[in-house]
UniProtKB/TrEMBL annotation:
<dbReference type="InterPro" id="IPR007110">
    <property type="entry name" value="Ig-like_dom"/>
</dbReference>
<dbReference type="Pfam" id="PF21339">
    <property type="entry name" value="VEGFR-1-like_Ig-like"/>
</dbReference>
<keyword id="KW-1015">Disulfide bond</keyword>
<comment type="subunit">
    <text>Forms a complex composed of PDGFRL, TNK2 and GRB2.</text>
</comment>
<keyword id="KW-0393">Immunoglobulin domain</keyword>
<dbReference type="InterPro" id="IPR013783">
    <property type="entry name" value="Ig-like_fold"/>
</dbReference>
<dbReference type="InterPro" id="IPR003599">
    <property type="entry name" value="Ig_sub"/>
</dbReference>
<dbReference type="InterPro" id="IPR042495">
    <property type="entry name" value="PDGFRL"/>
</dbReference>
<keyword id="KW-0732">Signal</keyword>
<keyword id="KW-0677">Repeat</keyword>
<feature type="compositionally biased region" description="Basic residues">
    <location>
        <begin position="40"/>
        <end position="50"/>
    </location>
</feature>
<protein>
    <recommendedName>
        <fullName>Platelet-derived growth factor receptor-like protein</fullName>
    </recommendedName>
</protein>
<feature type="domain" description="Ig-like">
    <location>
        <begin position="62"/>
        <end position="143"/>
    </location>
</feature>
<dbReference type="GO" id="GO:0005576">
    <property type="term" value="C:extracellular region"/>
</dbReference>
<feature type="region of interest" description="Disordered">
    <location>
        <begin position="20"/>
        <end position="61"/>
    </location>
</feature>
<feature type="domain" description="Ig-like">
    <location>
        <begin position="272"/>
        <end position="375"/>
    </location>
</feature>
<dbReference type="Pfam" id="PF13927">
    <property type="entry name" value="Ig_3"/>
</dbReference>
């Protein structure tokens, strides 16, 4: 009876082991062939995360890349930094990769059609070369690739390059100005810049009023200093008017810039404010008459005049003279008055009718008219 009881208990124990997944101790039975071939270890393994391709990657806006290279001596080259400092007299050579490259450079070089500058397009890159550089060449040099669809081309914003270059020259802390006195117009609706730029980026530059004599602080609120532009009036008003100049100090030397007349502008920007007036609207045969077209506007905005008059189709001889000048209106306000005057001698039948004047500026045009008849 005891033997059968022990045998029953052993069978129950084995059944419980199979249910719970527990294995008998290693020393209780021999290993089966192929069992436990992989040895356990404590080494941590970083799981590999499969790369998932972004379906929208092709639609994403491509990042802009600089295509400009600065060619240096002995055949070396490098991508230029945002600003460079070169010694005047050096030859500047910039290249930009692309088969259609456009360039921008200081307007000083364009104004005088300077022969020291050459721009060429090669098969794979555009090339800008400036020889015998001077302090006056200081400024921004930039390039961009042209993106064309058929005959229509535009700027490719993903392929551009630019650098601001300081050309240091002995005795020239300021970029030379073509005149000894310049005018800066103060508009209430836009920033105004006193363009005293330096050729040495580390120079200490200050702004001064001539009368009453005092330094104008660049406090970051009313006035800020930008080494690439000069002193910037953020919100100009009439109290800023007067004559100012800049002073630069570097390497134990100092220099004074040209003087700038700051004038506050009264007339806001927009199409010309135009009036027309005849010397007389009732004229006798044989008299001389004149018709005056007048525009009051922004001092730094040029105005062009066009005329239509009765004798035009018959090629009636007339005299037209255009002039402009600055005038002061009220306290601290400056306005540009532009005028065109048409003169007709020996008035006759063909001169009777409408005299039409059209004044045009960058913001638009205005047309006015008056009639002249026999008295």
């Amino acid at each position: 009876m005891k033997v059968w009881l022990l045998l029953g208990l052993l069978l129950v124990h084995e059944a419980l082991g199979e249910v719970t997944g527990q294995q008998p101790p290693k020393n209780k039975r021999p290993k089966e062939p192929g069992e436990n071939r992989i040895k356990p270890t404590n080494k941590k393994v970083k799981p590999k995360i499969p790369k998932i391709k972004d379906r929208d990657a092709a639609d994403a806006t491509p990042k802009a890349q600089s295509i400009m290279i600065h060619m240096m001596d002995k055949g070396r080259f490098q991508k230029p930094a945002a600003t460079l400092s070169l010694t005047a007299g050096q030859t500047l050579e910039l290249r930009c990769k692309g088969s259609k490259i456009e360039w921008s450079y200081p307007t000083y070089l364009d104004t005088f059609k300077d022969s020291r500058l050459s721009v060429k397009q090669n098969e794979r890159y555009g090339q800008l070369t400036l020889v015998n550089s001077t302090a006056a060449d200081t400024g921004e040099f930039s390039c961009w690739a042209q993106l064309c669809h058929g005959y229509i081309c535009g700027r490719d914003e993903t392929k551009t390059g630019s650098t601001y270059i300081f050309f240091t020259e002995k005795g020239e802390l300021f970029v030379p100005s073509p005149s000894y006195f310049d005018v800066v117009y103060l508009n209430p609706d836009k920033q105004a810049v006193v363009p005293c730029r330096v050729t040495v980026p580390s120079a200490k530059v200050t702004l001064h009023r001539e009368f009453p004599a005092k330094e104008i602080p660049a406090n970051g609120t009313d006035v800020v200093y930008d080494v690439k532009r000069g002193f910037v009036y953020l919100q100009p008003h009439s109290d800023h008017q007067g004559v100012v100049y800049c002073k630069a100090e570097a390497g134990g030397k100092s220099q004074i810039s040209v003087k700038y007349q700051l004038l506050y502008v009264e007339v806001p920007r927009g199409p010309p404010s135009t009036t027309i007036l005849a010397s007389s609207n009732k004229v006798r045969s044989g008299d001389d008459i004149s018709v005056l077209c007048t525009v009051l506007g922004d001092p730094d905005v040029e105005v062009e005049f066009r005329w239509i008059y009765p004798g035009q189709k018959d090629e009636r001889p007339v005299t037209i003279q255009d002039t402009w000048r600055l005038i002061h209106r009220g306290r601290g306000h400056t306005t540009r008055i532009s005028q065109s005057i048409m003169t007709i001698e020996d008035f006759e039948t063909t001169d009777v009718g409408y005299y039409i004047c059209t004044a045009q500026n960058l913001q638009g045009e205005t047309t006015v008219a008056t009639t002249v008849e026999f008295s």
